Amino acid sequence: MPVSWQMGRLPSADMRESLDLSGAWTWSIDPYRDGLYGFHGDPAGEGHRRWDDRDVDEVSRKNPTALFEYDMRRSPTVQLPSSWITQDPTLRYYDKLVWYQRAFDLPKALPGHRAFLRFGAVDYQAFVYFNGEFVGRHEGGFTPFAFEVTKLLRQGENRVTVGADAERGPDTIPPTVTDWETYGGITRPVHLVITPETYVDDAWIRLTRTGRIAVTVRLDGPSAAGRLVRVRIPALDFELEGRAGNDGSWAADAPAPPGLKLWSPDSPQLYDVVFEAGDDMLHDRVGFRTIEVRGTDILLNGKPIFLRGISMHEEEFGKEPTRAITPATAAALLGEIKHGLNANFVRLAHYPHSEVMTRTADELGLLVWSEIPVYWRINFARAETLATARRMLAENILRDRNRASIILWSVANETPLSDARNSFLATLARDVRTLDDSRLVTAALLTDRREKDGHVEMVLNDPLVAQLDVMAINTYNGWYSPDPLAKLPDIVWNADRGKPLIFSEFGADALAGFHDPALKRKFSEEYQAEYYRQTLKMSQKIPYLRGLSPWIFKDFRSPRRQHPVYQQGWNRKGVVSETGQRKQAFTILSDYYRSQMAAGR
Predict the structure, then answer these.
(1) pLDDT tens for residues 197-240?
(2) What angle do CA 414, 418, 422 make, to 5 degrees?
(3) What angle do CA 207, 403, 336 make, to 5 degrees?
(4) For residue range 95-147, what is the model confidence (pLDDT) as tens digits?
(5) What's the whole-model pTM score?
(6) What band does 599 get if pLDDT is binned at 50, 70 and 90?
(7) Geometric angle at alpha carbon 514, from 508 and 519, rounded to 5°
(8) CB 374 within 8 A of CB 397
(9) DSSP letter string over 269-299?
(10) Torsions phi, psi of 422, nearest 5?
(11) Residue 4's pLDDT is what?
(12) What is the mean pLDDT of the chain?
């Protein structure tokens, strides 16, 4: 069954004029999901429904016998977007339901228009109500979604209620066990988007590998069929137009204009693009480049490139991050990667990061690996889990298809082999090619370790390789193995499958400021620095290696990591600390990348 995309999702809505609902929301904790279900499993009763369109105090004054066990209008307030870790430190490991509500005023009616509530992300499930009516549910903590509220919108006060449920289980994506913090809540912006009755729902423009500008547009609304569609790049005097088909879609292509400057890390040229259909107009800023594979080479704009990168989680600098990414926090993170580490590439792990992050990568000139959280213990045999993964992948790709920075879509990380897993991931790889044939498909794979006569060989035996354009391997020899660091360059890699390889992860923990130059024991900056020296030497012996994204840029929160001295709930594999303090390994990697730049890689 081919992947489908439901209309009305507004994947590029961050570029539209809208009412930003960021700011003060009231909140109410609900660990037993009382606002959804009664104690016998029936629908929630009147005195428990936090989403009801009523003033609880006013009702109880009129009817003193009425019983309410909530009052959203008088609950504490919190500034959103953010996770509930920030609003109450006792919620650090809370992973159940929290209700949020806010009101806004609409000064006048909007006849002839449509209204959508558009969420950047709610982790993990969202139950959305508007003026007391249920408008939809969304599963997945890292991709955008929208619900139409046209018929519920009213002049004057309107009220949005969201139940954010962070609980994960064996059938969710990601599963219960991960190596990062669960930042439950409304972690990305919420907007009320107003559009004409027929509007541009999705618009994708790209440079093909044959040198043409290709455009795909989808309209939604009663007048979509046959409507004139126009695409303009004013700076290039480029224009294409045509009429949408019966399903509201239109596609066309034309030779790239002679003045087009290609986007690259050295020259991240972006152009203002305008999509028009009737009385609707959608703007975007887009770079044009090509990415492809030829043998074991990755070609950017037709030329081989080595990916000098690093992995990162979506956490801002600071001792108390809340996963609320702004243009300033994104620029601070990615700017240090680009200019401090001399990198041209970043792996955004292990889930789709904020669209603020990918737009900042466009502006700065960083190539991006983007992935969905198909991670570790996925229930690969369950059809519903596959359906969830396919929808997440579609939401990720359709949101970011116009981002020149993104060159790799990843479908998985460190998943154990099985027939069910192989079929599951092959389906996702096919979906990538259906939704976006202009980029490359990858996945972070595991390897087999063999030892004979004291020699170590790492073997790639994953059948998923056949479905990928670029192979990627996570390797931690010398950290999760007893290998002496001096022996790492002697490890033999048996992974040549005629395709380019990326080391998608390698790393070692170090607590910033902890030094042990004599012993170089684990968790010291000296051990981490030596680990990097020797692993980089090992990597130089692999002739088909075309990129590195060590684990990881910044120390990040992880409940798995509980050493009372060195970790205290943080994964310390960052080359900088959570506050941005550079460790010794930062200089090792930065100097190495500088040498690669000097060598033209």
Answers:
(1) 999 999 999 999 999 999 999 999 999 999 999 999 999 999 99
(2) 75
(3) 130
(4) 999 999 999 999 888 899 999 999 999 999 999 999 999 999 999 999 999 99
(5) 0.96
(6) confident
(7) 75
(8) no
(9) --EEEEEEETTEEEEEEE----EEEETTEEE
(10) -60, -40
(11) 47
(12) 95
- Report whether 470 contacts 298 (CB < 8 A): yes
Buried b vs exposed e over 15-35: b needs ≥16 C-beta within 10 Å?
A: bbebeebbeebbbbbbeeebb
Say what the pLDDT of residue 385 is: 97
Angstrom CA distances, 504 to 255, 351, 458, 532, 601, stand at: 36, 14, 15, 14, 18
Counting Cα atoms < 13 Å in the Cβ hemisphere of 550 gives 31
Q: Give the side-chain half-sphere CA count within 13 A for 453.
A: 0
Domains in the chain (CATH in brackets) are 13-196 (2.60.120.260), 212-289 (2.60.40.10), 302-598 (3.20.20.80)
Residue 263's SS3 state is: coil
**Which residues are 145's β-sheet partners?**
119
Q: What percent of the chain has pLDDT over 90?
A: 92
What value does the CA radius of gyration of the chain take, rounded to a whole number of Å? 25
Report which of 175, 171, 124 is spatially closest to residue 383, judged by C-alpha positions.
Answer: 171
Residue position matching structure tokens 């700011």: 23
Cα(566)–Cα(524) distance, integer angstroms: 9
Residues 6+ apart with CB under 8 A from 79: 22, 23, 24, 25
Angle at 117 between CA 140 and CA 181, to 5 degrees: 30
C-alpha torsion angle, residues 586, 591, 595, 600 (rounded to 10): 40
Of 315, 255, 302, nearest to 83 by C-alpha is: 315
pLDDT-derived band at 171 (thresholds 50, 70, 90) equals: very high
Q: Express each pLDDT in 464-481 by its tens digit.
A: 999 999 999 999 999 999
Structure tokens at 451: 């030892």
Query: What gap in Å lies between CA 529 and CA 532, rounded to an integer?
Result: 5
